[in-house]
Design brief:
The complex is a heterodimer of chains A (200) and B (288). Chain A has 200 residues and is mostly helical. Chain A contains nine helices and no strands. Helices cover 88% and strands 0% of the residues of chain A.
C-alpha cells in the first residue's frame, strides 16, 4: 500500500501546499469552528486523488500490480485519515500556542471531535465515489454536507433546550469517536464491494 | 518438472459474456521461453482476454493458470510480482514524473531494479523530471515498457504496447523483447495490430475474431502450412477442394489461400504472410 500512498502524495503535491496554507490559516484563527473547517478540507483530499486516478485510468494499471482490491480502496481512506489527523494536530498545536497567548483556540476535545466529523464525512461519502465515480460522488457529497449542516444545527438547538452545553460536549465526545470507527469499518467494506463490482 | 519448464499461460475453455459481446471458449497455451502474439480486430476480445488473465475481470467459466498458478488463487497477488504489464495506454497519473513513477514502483514491486530502470530511461531518451502529461504517446508507451521490464518479471503481457512508436524505436523495443525471452523462464504475450511486428518476434500466434479463437498455432507451422495462389476462376476450379481455404475474387482474377501440402506439385504457391492469412480468414469467401 505504501506505493499507492506515495503515488497519491505526489499527485497531491501541488494541492498539499495550498492545503497546508489553508489549514494553518484555519487553525490560527481563534474559534473552534475553524478547526472543523480545516479538518473537513483535509477530508476532501481523497476525492482529489480519486479524480486524478479516474482521469488517468490509474485503476486499470493498479489492478495489474501486486495490490489487492482492499489495499487499493483502503489506501484512499488512509490518505484521508493522514490528512485529517495532520490537520487536527496542526489546529491543536495552534490552539496551544493561542492558549499561551491568552486567546481561546482549539482545545484537545475540539480537535478530536473535528477529526471524528472529518472521518465520518469520509466514511459516508467515499463509498458512493467508488460506486458512481467522483463526478456523481461529489454531488452526493454536497447533498450530504447540506443535510448534515442543517440537521446538526437543528439537533444542537433542540438539545440546547434540554441539555447543558458541557453535557452535550461530553455526549458527543463519547458518541462521535465510536461512530467514526464503526462507520469507517462499514464504509471500507462497502467501498471494497463497490470497487469490485465497478471493476469486474 | 521444474517451474521454468511449466507453461507461462494456460487458458482452458474461458468464457466471459457482457450481454452484447461474448468471449467464448478460449483455449490458449504459452510455453515458457516463448512469445505468443494475440491478433484480432478492434473489439475482438484481446484486451478482455488480458484482463481475464490478470483477474481484473471475472470470468464466467473456464480455468486460467499464470506461471503455474490459478489466477483465482489467493496467492495470485504473488504471481503479479512476476508479471510485467503494458496496457494500450500508459495510465500513469499525468502529474507524475518518471523519477516519481520509479519511487512508486520501488514501493510496489519487491524486485524493483532502480539501476535497470535508469538504464531504460537513458536508452529510450526519456527525461526523468518531466511530467507525464507532457510526454508524447511514444514516450508514454516507452515509460510503461521500461516500468514493466524493471521489476524483473518472468512474464510480460503487452496490450498494443508498440503502437504509437516510430519504426526505429519499435524495432529496438522488439529486440529488447527478443532478448528478454532468451532466458527460457521468460515469456511474452503480446497483442498488436502491427502484424509484421508479430511475424518478426512471435513463436506462436493466436487469432481472435468476434470473441472466438480461430486458431492458436506455432507461427512457423502456420507459415509453412499456408500459401497463396493467384489464378483465374477456371484454374481455381481445378484445384483440389481440400487445398483451398479461402478465396478473394477481383476484376483481375482470383487469389486463394491454400494448404501447400494438398496442392498438386505442378502448382506453385507464393509464401503467405501473417497478414495474408489473417485477411483471408476474416474477409475471404469460403471455398466452394
Amino acid at each position: 500500500m505504501k506505493g499507492l500512498l506515495i503515488k497519491d502524495l505526489y499527485v497531491l503535491l501541488k494541492q498539499m501546499r495550498i492545503f497546508l496554507l489553508m489549514v494553518v490559516v484555519f487553525a490560527i484563527i481563534p474559534g473552534s469552528s475553524m478547526t472543523t473547517f480545516a479538518v473537513i478540507y483535509a477530508a476532501m483530499m481523497p476525492y482529489t486523488a480519486l479524480a486524478y486516478d479516474e482521469r488517468s485510468r490509474w485503476g486499470e494499471l493498479a489492478g495489474m500490480m501486486p495490490y489487492s482490491t482492499r489495499e487499493i480502496v483502503l489506501s484512499k481512506y488512509v490518505l484521508g485519515w493522514l490528512f485529517t489527523g495532520g490537520a487536527a494536530v496542526i489546529a491543536l498545536a495552534a490552539g496551544l500556542v493561542e492558549a499561551r497567548m491568552g486567546l481561546r483556540g482549539c482545545s484537545p476535545r475540539m480537535a478530536i471531535l473535528s477529526l471524528c466529523i472529518g472521518v465520518i464525512m469520509m466514511a459516508i461519502t467515499l463509498p458512493p465515489m467508488f460506486r458512481f465515480g467522483v463526478e456523481k460522488g461529489r454531488m452526493l457529497f454536497i447533498l450530504v454536507m447540506v443535510v448534515a449542516a442543517l440537521s446538526s444545527v437543528s439537533l444542537v438547538n433542540a438539545l440546547d433546550q434540554v441539555v447543558e452545553t458541557r453535557a452535550l460536549m461530553s455526549v458527543l465526545g463519547l458518541c462521535l469517536p465510536v461512530a467514526a470507527v464503526v462507520l469507517s469499518a462499514v464504509s471500507v467494506l462497502l467501498s471494497v464491494r463497490f470497487y469490485t463490482v465497478q471493476n469486474h | 518438472m521444474t517451474e521454468e519448464l511449466q507453461n507461462a499461460l494456460e487458458l482452458r475453455h474461458v468464457t466471459r459474456s457482457f450481454g452484447d459481446f461474448t468471449l467464448r471458449d478460449v483455449n490458449l497455451t504459452l510455453p515458457s521461453g516463448c512469445i505468443l502474439g494475440l491478433i484480432g480486430e478492434n473489439g475482438a476480445g484481446k484486451s478482455t482476454t488480458i484482463r481475464l488473465i490478470m483477474n481484473t475481470l471475472r470470468r464466467d467459466s473456464g480455468q486460467i493458470q499464470v506461471l503455474g498458478r490459478d489466477n483465482l488463487s489467493p496467492d495470485f497477488r504473488e504471481t503479479r510480482e512476476d508479471v510485467g504489464v503494458v496496457l494500450d495506454e500508459a495510465y500513469f497519473p499525468e502529474v507524475l514524473t518518471a523519477a516519481q513513477v520509479a519511487k512508486v514502483m520501488a514501493n510496489t514491486y519487491r524486485r524493483w531494479d532502480s539501476l535497470l530502470f535508469a538504464r531504460y530511461l537513458q536508452q529510450f531518451s526519456l527525461p526523468s523530471g518531466k511530467m507525464f502529461r507532457d510526454f508524447s504517446r511514444g514516450m508514454k508507451m516507452k515509460l510503461a515498457i521500461a516500468v514493466a521490464l524493471s521489476h524483473q518479471p518472468r512474464l510480460l503481457i503487452l496490450d498494443e504496447a508498440t503502437s504509437g512508436l516510430d519504426p526505429i524505436v519499435r524495432d529496438d523495443i522488439l529486440d529488447i523483447f527478443l532478448e528478454f525471452t532468451r532466458d527460457p523462464a521468460h515469456s511474452i504475450l503480446i497483442s498488436s495490430h502491427i502484424l509484421s511486428d508479430l511475424e518478426k518476434i512471435c513463436d506462436y500466434v493466436a487469432f481472435l475474431h468476434q470473441g472466438s479463437l480461430l486458431f492458436c498455432e506455432e507461427k512457423d507451422r502456420l507459415l509453412e502450412t499456408y500459401g497463396v495462389v493467384t489464378c483465374g476462376p477456371a484454374q481455381l476450379a481445378g484445384l483440389p477442394k481440400d487445398a483451398v481455404v479461402r478465396v478473394e475474387r477481383s476484376g483481375y482474377g482470383v487469389r486463394a489461400l491454400v494448404r501447400r501440402e494438398k496442392l498438386p506439385a505442378a502448382i506453385q504457391a507464393e509464401r503467405a504472410s501473417m497478414e495474408d492469412i489473417i485477411l483471408f480468414l476474416v474477409k475471404g469467401e469460403a471455398a466452394q
